[in-house]
Amino acid sequence: MTKKTLRIASYNIRKARGLDQKRRPERSLQVINGLEADVVVLQEADKRLGQRHPALPRAMIEAETDFELVEVCANDISLGWHGNAMLVRKGLGVRDITRLDLPGFEPRGAVRMTLDIAGGVTVVATHLGLLRRDRRAQLAVLAQATASDAHVIMAGDFNEWSPDKGFEPLSDRFETCSPGRSFHARRPMAALDRFALSHGIEMRDAGVEQGKLARIASDHLPIWSDVVVPSSTC
């Protein structure tokens, strides 16, 4: 059996507005580039009001990174779906892109895609709600939506302050992993940003980017993980 190693990162970019209250998309992209990931999932990738214009201009992504934007938005303006966007390293094949609405008091969503590696790896990007009962219901939807997928990686801002509560809908099939405290960027106190890996996917390494630029570019620090996905194909 062959295996495929993949680096995936997750970053709540706060609409590219830093702790200095300046909106600087070029700074956000510099942090993203420094993660050296194959896949980056973003939260708060679009501005909140009106037509939800992107916080990161498409032309800037194309010119200043080696990533391609996965087209997940439902219009011709935004980058994401409920603020969730996906970047993949150029040349990495993507298929089966799905937008998911999530239940809860406030509008939330997720995006699901399949990477053309290791026979197919499903990546889900999400930003869960502020209430634990909503988060549990949202995770239940995501677990059901990926029930037939062989290998699944969920990543995003899970908004859960507890290290062990709130993840019950994933417990049968997933291991929920936190690389470390990622919020607040100025003084990290909570591991709000997480990965959930389906059984069979091995996490080899993981961490929180704590460089000087990351500590001012958003109120969240980005997280990353190196995972190994088993495959019966080359």
Task: Annotate the secondary structure layout.
Elements (H helix, E strand, L loop, with lengths): L1 E11 L12 H10 L4 E5 L14 H7 L2 E3 L15 E5 L4 E9 L5 E8 L5 E7 L4 H14 L6 E6 L16 E4 L15 E6 L3 E7 L5 H4 L5 E9 L3
Parallel strand pairs: 1-2, 7-8
Antiparallel strand pairs: 1-12, 2-4, 3-4, 5-6, 6-7, 8-10, 9-10, 11-12
- Identify low-pLDDT runs: none
Which architecture would the CATH scheme give at its second level? Answer: 4-Layer Sandwich
Q: In the CATH scheme, what's the topology name?
A: Deoxyribonuclease I, Chain A
Counting structural domains, the number is 1
The level 1 CATH classification is Alpha Beta
Q: Please identify which CATH superfamily we are dealing with.
A: Endonuclease/exonuclease/phosphatase
- Measured on Cα atoms, how large is the radius of gyration? 16 Å
**Count of discrete alpha- or pi-helical segments spanning 4 or more residues:** 4
Helix % is 10-25%
Report the span from N to C terminus.
Answer: 9 Å
